[in-house]
Specification:
Elements: H1 2-23, E1 35-38, E2 50-52, H2 54-58, H3 63-69, H4 83-87, E3 120-122
Antiparallel strand pairs: 1-2, 1-3
């Protein structure tokens, strides 16, 4: 009989937690789940901004891999990332070298953002940031 009540109480507590999660507004998404737009130099160079899928990388690596080992600052726009540095194996180029991950020859894989999108942590869906495949233009 005790097991029956414990099980029932657990289900009720779970139901209340789920309802509370759905009702309480969360207007500020955490950067851990957002995409990072990198546009320090892209617009000036006539390229689309980079859309970095932070969570995609975060589920595969611990924070220290990029933020300690590779030197990325914990601030959008806090890094002086250039393509030359990436080609030299710094920042993204440490892994995107065609050994650990795909290489950087296909520019549109990273430079996929809508022109003019500022450097920021973007809390919306990627559909609002990226130019759909097949669309021509900048």
């Amino acid at each position: 009989m005790l097991i029956f009540w414990e099980s029932r109480l657990r289900r009720i507590a779970m139901f209340i937690a789920v309802i509370g999660f759905l009702i309480v507004p969360n207007s500020q998404a955490r950067s851990e789940y957002g995409d990072v737009v990198i546009n320090n130099y892209s617009d000036d160079a006539g390229m689309r901004p980079v859309v970095f899928p932070h969570w995609f990388h975060r589920i595969r690596f611990r924070c220290k891999v990029c933020h300690s080992d590779l030197g990325f600052e914990f601030k959008a726009g806090g890094n002086d990332i250039t393509m030359l540095k990436i080609f030299d194996g710094e920042y993204c180029g440490a892994c995107h070298n065609d050994e650990i991950a795909w290489s950087v020859e296909n520019c549109s894989l990273c430079h996929s953002g809508k022109p003019g999108t500022p450097t920021q942590i973007h809390n919306s869906t990627i559909d609002r940031l990226v130019i759909p495949p097949g669309v021509t233009g900048q």
